Structure to design on (388 residues):
Protein backbone atom coordinates (compact mmCIF):
# COMPACT_ATOMS: atom_id res chain seq x y z
CA UNK A 1 0.00 0.00 0.00
CA UNK A 2 1.40 3.42 -0.97
CA UNK A 3 1.45 5.56 2.14
CA UNK A 4 0.46 9.23 2.19
CA UNK A 5 2.73 11.42 4.23
CA UNK A 6 0.68 14.40 5.45
CA UNK A 7 2.94 15.52 8.30
CA UNK A 8 5.38 17.99 6.73
CA UNK A 9 5.11 20.35 9.70
CA UNK A 10 6.64 17.65 11.92
CA UNK A 11 9.39 16.97 9.41
CA UNK A 12 9.39 17.20 5.63
CA UNK A 13 10.73 14.39 3.44
CA UNK A 14 14.34 15.07 2.49
CA UNK A 15 14.46 16.80 -0.89
CA UNK A 16 16.59 14.95 -3.47
CA UNK A 17 18.77 18.05 -3.88
CA UNK A 18 19.42 18.11 -0.13
CA UNK A 19 20.15 14.40 0.00
CA UNK A 20 22.69 14.75 -2.82
CA UNK A 21 24.38 17.69 -1.07
CA UNK A 22 24.58 15.78 2.25
CA UNK A 23 26.00 12.64 0.63
CA UNK A 24 28.52 14.65 -1.37
CA UNK A 25 29.72 16.51 1.73
CA UNK A 26 29.89 13.34 3.83
CA UNK A 27 32.16 11.78 1.23
CA UNK A 28 34.77 14.46 1.86
CA UNK A 29 36.98 15.15 4.85
CA UNK A 30 37.52 18.65 6.11
CA UNK A 31 36.92 20.94 9.07
CA UNK A 32 35.54 24.25 7.81
CA UNK A 33 37.97 26.08 10.13
CA UNK A 34 41.11 24.38 8.78
CA UNK A 35 43.42 26.32 6.49
CA UNK A 36 44.45 23.43 4.24
CA UNK A 37 42.73 22.58 0.97
CA UNK A 38 40.34 20.05 2.55
CA UNK A 39 39.30 22.60 5.16
CA UNK A 40 38.82 25.28 2.56
CA UNK A 41 36.58 22.98 0.50
CA UNK A 42 34.41 22.36 3.58
CA UNK A 43 34.42 26.11 4.24
CA UNK A 44 33.18 26.77 0.70
CA UNK A 45 30.31 24.32 1.17
CA UNK A 46 29.28 26.08 4.38
CA UNK A 47 29.52 29.54 2.79
CA UNK A 48 27.54 28.54 -0.26
CA UNK A 49 24.80 27.14 2.03
CA UNK A 50 24.92 30.38 4.04
CA UNK A 51 24.23 32.37 0.87
CA UNK A 52 21.28 30.11 -0.05
CA UNK A 53 19.74 30.31 3.43
CA UNK A 54 20.21 34.09 3.47
CA UNK A 55 18.51 34.37 0.06
CA UNK A 56 15.48 32.43 1.33
CA UNK A 57 14.74 35.26 3.78
CA UNK A 58 16.20 38.21 1.85
CA UNK A 59 19.12 38.63 4.24
CA UNK A 60 22.83 39.32 4.04
CA UNK A 61 24.78 36.03 4.17
CA UNK A 62 27.20 37.26 6.82
CA UNK A 63 24.26 37.72 9.19
CA UNK A 64 23.36 34.01 9.11
CA UNK A 65 24.57 31.90 12.06
CA UNK A 66 24.19 28.14 11.70
CA UNK A 67 22.95 26.10 14.67
CA UNK A 68 21.95 22.49 15.29
CA UNK A 69 18.27 23.23 14.66
CA UNK A 70 15.36 25.55 15.30
CA UNK A 71 15.24 24.76 19.01
CA UNK A 72 18.87 25.77 19.52
CA UNK A 73 18.37 28.88 17.39
CA UNK A 74 15.40 29.95 19.51
CA UNK A 75 17.15 29.20 22.80
CA UNK A 76 20.14 31.23 21.65
CA UNK A 77 18.30 34.41 20.69
CA UNK A 78 15.98 34.38 23.69
CA UNK A 79 18.50 36.05 25.96
CA UNK A 80 18.64 39.34 27.80
CA UNK A 81 22.25 39.73 26.65
CA UNK A 82 22.23 41.75 23.43
CA UNK A 83 24.52 44.48 22.21
CA UNK A 84 23.79 47.37 19.86
CA UNK A 85 26.66 49.12 18.08
CA UNK A 86 29.01 47.28 20.42
CA UNK A 87 27.30 48.65 23.53
CA UNK A 88 25.34 46.58 26.04
CA UNK A 89 21.61 46.50 25.14
CA UNK A 90 20.24 44.41 27.99
CA UNK A 91 16.63 43.24 27.73
CA UNK A 92 14.82 43.03 31.05
CA UNK A 93 11.87 40.90 30.03
CA UNK A 94 10.56 38.57 27.34
CA UNK A 95 7.13 38.87 25.73
CA UNK A 96 6.13 35.76 23.77
CA UNK A 97 2.97 34.90 21.86
CA UNK A 98 0.75 32.44 23.72
CA UNK A 99 0.75 29.99 20.79
CA UNK A 100 4.54 29.84 20.27
CA UNK A 101 6.43 26.60 19.81
CA UNK A 102 7.63 25.20 23.18
CA UNK A 103 11.22 26.15 22.30
CA UNK A 104 10.12 29.82 22.46
CA UNK A 105 7.47 29.48 25.13
CA UNK A 106 10.03 28.08 27.56
CA UNK A 107 11.85 31.42 27.34
CA UNK A 108 15.41 30.42 26.46
CA UNK A 109 17.84 32.07 28.85
CA UNK A 110 15.28 34.33 30.55
CA UNK A 111 14.24 33.32 34.05
CA UNK A 112 10.56 32.35 34.43
CA UNK A 113 9.82 35.58 36.34
CA UNK A 114 10.89 37.65 33.32
CA UNK A 115 8.55 35.96 30.82
CA UNK A 116 5.02 37.15 29.92
CA UNK A 117 2.65 35.70 27.33
CA UNK A 118 0.88 37.90 24.79
CA UNK A 119 -2.72 36.64 24.50
CA UNK A 120 -4.19 35.59 21.15
CA UNK A 121 -7.71 35.90 19.74
CA UNK A 122 -9.99 33.03 18.70
CA UNK A 123 -8.16 32.72 15.38
CA UNK A 124 -4.80 32.42 17.16
CA UNK A 125 -3.52 35.87 16.21
CA UNK A 126 -1.71 37.92 18.85
CA UNK A 127 -3.74 40.75 20.31
CA UNK A 128 -1.78 43.80 19.22
CA UNK A 129 -3.51 46.06 21.74
CA UNK A 130 -2.41 43.68 24.53
CA UNK A 131 1.17 43.84 23.23
CA UNK A 132 0.99 47.65 23.22
CA UNK A 133 -0.21 47.80 26.79
CA UNK A 134 2.34 45.21 27.99
CA UNK A 135 5.10 47.27 26.38
CA UNK A 136 3.69 50.49 27.89
CA UNK A 137 3.79 48.83 31.34
CA UNK A 138 7.40 47.79 30.77
CA UNK A 139 8.37 51.30 29.63
CA UNK A 140 6.67 52.81 32.70
CA UNK A 141 8.89 50.58 34.87
CA UNK A 142 11.98 51.54 32.87
CA UNK A 143 12.24 48.02 31.44
CA UNK A 144 13.14 46.92 27.90
CA UNK A 145 11.54 43.88 26.30
CA UNK A 146 12.53 41.26 23.79
CA UNK A 147 9.38 40.39 21.82
CA UNK A 148 9.06 37.00 20.14
CA UNK A 149 6.08 36.23 17.90
CA UNK A 150 6.19 33.38 15.37
CA UNK A 151 5.51 33.99 11.70
CA UNK A 152 3.41 30.86 11.05
CA UNK A 153 1.98 28.56 13.67
CA UNK A 154 3.10 24.93 13.49
CA UNK A 155 -0.30 23.54 14.47
CA UNK A 156 -2.82 25.75 12.67
CA UNK A 157 -0.68 27.49 10.02
CA UNK A 158 -2.00 30.89 11.15
CA UNK A 159 0.24 33.74 9.96
CA UNK A 160 0.85 36.35 12.66
CA UNK A 161 0.90 40.09 11.92
CA UNK A 162 4.65 40.15 12.49
CA UNK A 163 5.30 43.44 10.68
CA UNK A 164 2.82 45.13 13.07
CA UNK A 165 4.45 43.41 16.04
CA UNK A 166 7.85 44.74 14.88
CA UNK A 167 6.52 48.29 14.43
CA UNK A 168 4.86 48.30 17.85
CA UNK A 169 7.85 46.66 19.51
CA UNK A 170 10.38 49.06 18.03
CA UNK A 171 8.37 52.10 19.06
CA UNK A 172 8.85 50.87 22.66
CA UNK A 173 12.58 50.16 22.19
CA UNK A 174 12.12 46.39 22.01
CA UNK A 175 14.20 43.88 20.09
CA UNK A 176 11.86 41.81 17.93
CA UNK A 177 12.34 38.14 17.02
CA UNK A 178 10.19 35.91 14.86
CA UNK A 179 10.35 32.13 14.72
CA UNK A 180 10.00 31.63 10.96
CA UNK A 181 10.55 27.86 11.10
CA UNK A 182 7.08 27.03 9.73
CA UNK A 183 6.85 29.99 7.35
CA UNK A 184 10.08 29.76 5.37
CA UNK A 185 9.64 27.83 2.16
CA UNK A 186 5.84 27.99 2.56
CA UNK A 187 5.31 31.73 2.00
CA UNK A 188 7.76 34.42 0.86
CA UNK A 189 9.76 35.64 3.88
CA UNK A 190 11.75 38.86 3.74
CA UNK A 191 13.48 39.97 6.91
CA UNK A 192 13.47 43.65 5.90
CA UNK A 193 9.78 43.65 4.94
CA UNK A 194 8.91 41.99 8.25
CA UNK A 195 10.96 44.61 10.07
CA UNK A 196 12.18 42.14 12.71
CA UNK A 197 15.68 42.25 14.18
CA UNK A 198 16.23 38.52 14.10
CA UNK A 199 14.53 35.38 12.84
CA UNK A 200 15.12 31.67 13.24
CA UNK A 201 14.91 28.75 10.80
CA UNK A 202 15.10 24.96 10.78
CA UNK A 203 16.38 22.84 7.88
CA UNK A 204 14.16 19.79 8.28
CA UNK A 205 10.91 21.72 7.92
CA UNK A 206 11.87 22.73 4.37
CA UNK A 207 13.16 19.40 3.11
CA UNK A 208 16.67 19.62 4.53
CA UNK A 209 18.23 17.22 7.06
CA UNK A 210 17.27 17.17 10.73
CA UNK A 211 19.74 18.82 13.09
CA UNK A 212 20.51 22.06 11.26
CA UNK A 213 19.03 25.49 11.80
CA UNK A 214 19.92 29.15 11.56
CA UNK A 215 19.69 32.50 13.27
CA UNK A 216 19.38 35.38 10.81
CA UNK A 217 19.88 38.98 11.89
CA UNK A 218 18.70 42.06 10.01
CA UNK A 219 21.75 44.15 10.84
CA UNK A 220 25.32 43.73 11.95
CA UNK A 221 24.78 46.44 14.56
CA UNK A 222 22.68 44.20 16.75
CA UNK A 223 24.12 41.03 18.24
CA UNK A 224 23.34 38.40 20.86
CA UNK A 225 25.60 36.71 23.40
CA UNK A 226 26.35 33.18 22.14
CA UNK A 227 24.76 30.23 23.89
CA UNK A 228 27.63 27.90 23.01
CA UNK A 229 31.09 29.26 23.70
CA UNK A 230 34.59 27.90 23.40
CA UNK A 231 35.41 28.24 19.72
CA UNK A 232 35.63 30.96 17.11
CA UNK A 233 33.24 29.36 14.60
CA UNK A 234 30.31 31.28 13.13
CA UNK A 235 31.99 34.65 13.74
CA UNK A 236 32.16 33.85 17.47
CA UNK A 237 28.37 33.51 17.70
CA UNK A 238 28.15 29.71 17.88
CA UNK A 239 31.09 27.63 19.00
CA UNK A 240 31.57 24.09 17.76
CA UNK A 241 32.71 22.48 14.52
CA UNK A 242 30.13 23.15 11.82
CA UNK A 243 28.06 20.16 10.72
CA UNK A 244 29.18 20.62 7.13
CA UNK A 245 27.00 17.89 5.60
CA UNK A 246 23.80 19.01 7.36
CA UNK A 247 24.52 22.64 6.53
CA UNK A 248 25.14 21.75 2.87
CA UNK A 249 21.80 19.92 2.83
CA UNK A 250 20.13 22.93 4.47
CA UNK A 251 21.50 25.20 1.74
CA UNK A 252 20.29 22.90 -1.04
CA UNK A 253 16.84 22.66 0.59
CA UNK A 254 16.68 26.45 0.97
CA UNK A 255 17.42 26.97 -2.73
CA UNK A 256 14.91 24.30 -3.76
CA UNK A 257 12.16 25.55 -1.47
CA UNK A 258 12.64 29.08 -2.70
CA UNK A 259 12.11 27.84 -6.24
CA UNK A 260 9.10 25.85 -4.96
CA UNK A 261 7.31 28.90 -3.51
CA UNK A 262 5.60 29.27 -6.88
CA UNK A 263 3.71 26.04 -6.10
CA UNK A 264 1.85 27.53 -3.13
CA UNK A 265 -1.46 27.81 -5.00
CA UNK A 266 -1.24 24.13 -5.93
CA UNK A 267 -0.75 23.15 -2.28
CA UNK A 268 -3.66 25.32 -1.21
CA UNK A 269 -5.90 23.59 -3.81
CA UNK A 270 -4.80 20.19 -2.47
CA UNK A 271 -5.46 21.32 1.10
CA UNK A 272 -8.94 22.57 0.20
CA UNK A 273 -9.71 19.37 -1.69
CA UNK A 274 -8.73 17.33 1.38
CA UNK A 275 -11.08 19.44 3.49
CA UNK A 276 -13.87 18.81 0.98
CA UNK A 277 -13.25 15.04 1.18
CA UNK A 278 -13.38 15.17 5.00
CA UNK A 279 -16.66 17.08 4.74
CA UNK A 280 -18.21 14.26 2.68
CA UNK A 281 -18.47 12.27 5.92
CA UNK A 282 -21.63 14.13 6.83
CA UNK A 283 -20.03 14.95 10.21
CA UNK A 284 -19.28 18.52 11.14
CA UNK A 285 -15.65 19.46 10.46
CA UNK A 286 -14.18 22.36 12.44
CA UNK A 287 -11.23 24.17 10.86
CA UNK A 288 -9.00 25.94 13.37
CA UNK A 289 -7.80 29.48 12.52
CA UNK A 290 -10.19 29.27 9.56
CA UNK A 291 -10.54 33.04 9.28
CA UNK A 292 -6.88 33.90 9.81
CA UNK A 293 -4.35 34.22 7.01
CA UNK A 294 -2.70 30.80 6.88
CA UNK A 295 0.22 29.11 5.16
CA UNK A 296 -1.17 27.19 2.16
CA UNK A 297 -0.20 23.68 3.19
CA UNK A 298 -1.52 23.34 6.75
CA UNK A 299 -4.97 22.22 7.83
CA UNK A 300 -5.88 21.81 11.50
CA UNK A 301 -9.31 20.25 11.92
CA UNK A 302 -11.57 18.30 14.24
CA UNK A 303 -14.26 15.91 13.02
CA UNK A 304 -17.30 15.99 15.26
CA UNK A 305 -17.60 12.97 17.49
CA UNK A 306 -14.12 11.57 16.80
CA UNK A 307 -11.13 11.90 19.12
CA UNK A 308 -7.75 12.84 17.65
CA UNK A 309 -6.21 9.60 18.83
CA UNK A 310 -8.88 7.47 17.16
CA UNK A 311 -8.61 9.45 13.94
CA UNK A 312 -4.83 9.39 13.87
CA UNK A 313 -4.64 5.64 14.41
CA UNK A 314 -7.46 4.89 11.96
CA UNK A 315 -5.82 7.01 9.28
CA UNK A 316 -2.42 5.46 9.97
CA UNK A 317 -3.90 1.97 9.52
CA UNK A 318 -5.20 3.13 6.14
CA UNK A 319 -1.75 4.40 5.18
CA UNK A 320 -2.14 8.11 5.96
CA UNK A 321 0.32 9.83 8.33
CA UNK A 322 -1.09 12.91 10.10
CA UNK A 323 -0.46 14.26 13.58
CA UNK A 324 -2.56 15.21 16.55
CA UNK A 325 -1.75 18.64 17.89
CA UNK A 326 1.95 19.35 17.48
CA UNK A 327 4.31 16.48 16.80
CA UNK A 328 6.54 17.65 19.62
CA UNK A 329 3.76 16.80 22.04
CA UNK A 330 2.37 13.76 20.26
CA UNK A 331 1.60 10.91 22.58
CA UNK A 332 0.08 13.46 24.93
CA UNK A 333 -3.70 13.14 25.10
CA UNK A 334 -4.46 16.52 26.70
CA UNK A 335 -5.39 19.36 24.32
CA UNK A 336 -2.35 21.44 23.42
CA UNK A 337 -1.56 24.97 24.54
CA UNK A 338 -2.26 26.44 21.09
CA UNK A 339 -5.94 25.59 20.92
CA UNK A 340 -6.35 26.31 24.65
CA UNK A 341 -4.90 29.81 24.15
CA UNK A 342 -7.39 30.31 21.29
CA UNK A 343 -10.25 29.46 23.64
CA UNK A 344 -11.26 26.31 21.73
CA UNK A 345 -13.51 24.21 24.03
CA UNK A 346 -11.73 21.13 25.38
CA UNK A 347 -14.18 18.66 23.83
CA UNK A 348 -13.51 20.13 20.37
CA UNK A 349 -9.75 20.49 20.91
CA UNK A 350 -9.51 16.79 21.83
CA UNK A 351 -10.42 15.96 18.27
CA UNK A 352 -7.79 18.19 16.66
CA UNK A 353 -5.58 16.68 14.00
CA UNK A 354 -3.12 18.40 11.69
CA UNK A 355 -2.71 17.63 8.01
CA UNK A 356 0.34 19.27 6.47
CA UNK A 357 1.55 18.96 2.91
CA UNK A 358 4.65 19.98 0.99
CA UNK A 359 6.97 19.66 -1.95
CA UNK A 360 6.23 16.00 -2.72
CA UNK A 361 2.43 16.17 -2.26
CA UNK A 362 0.58 15.43 -5.50
CA UNK A 363 -2.90 15.57 -7.04
CA UNK A 364 -2.86 11.76 -7.13
CA UNK A 365 -2.79 11.81 -3.30
CA UNK A 366 -6.42 12.95 -3.36
CA UNK A 367 -7.85 9.70 -4.73
CA UNK A 368 -5.82 7.68 -2.27
CA UNK A 369 -6.93 9.92 0.58
CA UNK A 370 -10.56 9.69 -0.47
CA UNK A 371 -10.42 5.88 -0.46
CA UNK A 372 -8.62 5.83 2.89
CA UNK A 373 -11.13 8.25 4.42
CA UNK A 374 -14.13 6.17 3.26
CA UNK A 375 -12.55 3.10 4.88
CA UNK A 376 -11.85 5.01 8.08
CA UNK A 377 -15.48 6.17 8.27
CA UNK A 378 -16.74 2.59 7.93
CA UNK A 379 -14.78 1.61 11.02
CA UNK A 380 -15.64 4.57 13.22
CA UNK A 381 -18.42 3.82 15.66
CA UNK A 382 -21.07 6.48 14.99
CA UNK A 383 -20.47 9.46 17.27
CA UNK A 384 -19.20 7.28 20.12
CA UNK A 385 -15.54 8.09 20.46
CA UNK A 386 -15.26 11.73 21.50
CA UNK A 387 -13.06 11.72 24.58
CA UNK A 388 -14.77 13.08 27.66
N1 LIG B 1 9.72 26.40 15.92
C1 LIG B 1 8.64 25.88 15.33
C2 LIG B 1 7.50 26.77 14.96
C3 LIG B 1 8.56 24.50 15.08
O1 LIG B 1 7.49 23.98 14.49
C4 LIG B 1 9.67 23.69 15.46
C5 LIG B 1 9.62 22.22 15.28
O2 LIG B 1 8.59 21.60 15.43
C6 LIG B 1 10.79 24.30 16.04
C7 LIG B 1 10.77 25.66 16.26
C8 LIG B 1 11.99 23.50 16.46
O3 LIG B 1 12.81 23.19 15.37
P1 LIG B 1 13.82 21.93 15.44
O4 LIG B 1 12.97 20.71 15.28
O5 LIG B 1 14.75 22.15 14.28
O6 LIG B 1 14.52 22.00 16.74
Amino acid sequence: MKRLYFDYNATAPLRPEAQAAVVEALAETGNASSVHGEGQAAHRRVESARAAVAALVGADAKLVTFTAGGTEANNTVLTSHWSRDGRDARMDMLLVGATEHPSVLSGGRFSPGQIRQIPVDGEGLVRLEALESMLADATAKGERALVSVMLANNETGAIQPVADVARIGHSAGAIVHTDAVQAAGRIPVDIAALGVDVLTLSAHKIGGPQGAGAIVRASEDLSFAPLLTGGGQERLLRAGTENVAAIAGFGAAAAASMAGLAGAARLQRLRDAILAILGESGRKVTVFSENAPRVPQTLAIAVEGVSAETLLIALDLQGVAVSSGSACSSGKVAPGHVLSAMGVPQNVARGAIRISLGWDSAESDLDLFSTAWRRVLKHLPPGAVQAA
In short: The pocket of pyridoxal-5'-phosphate is lined by residues 69-71, 74, 101, 103, 150, 154, 179, 181-182, 202, 204, 213, 328 (CB under 6 Å).
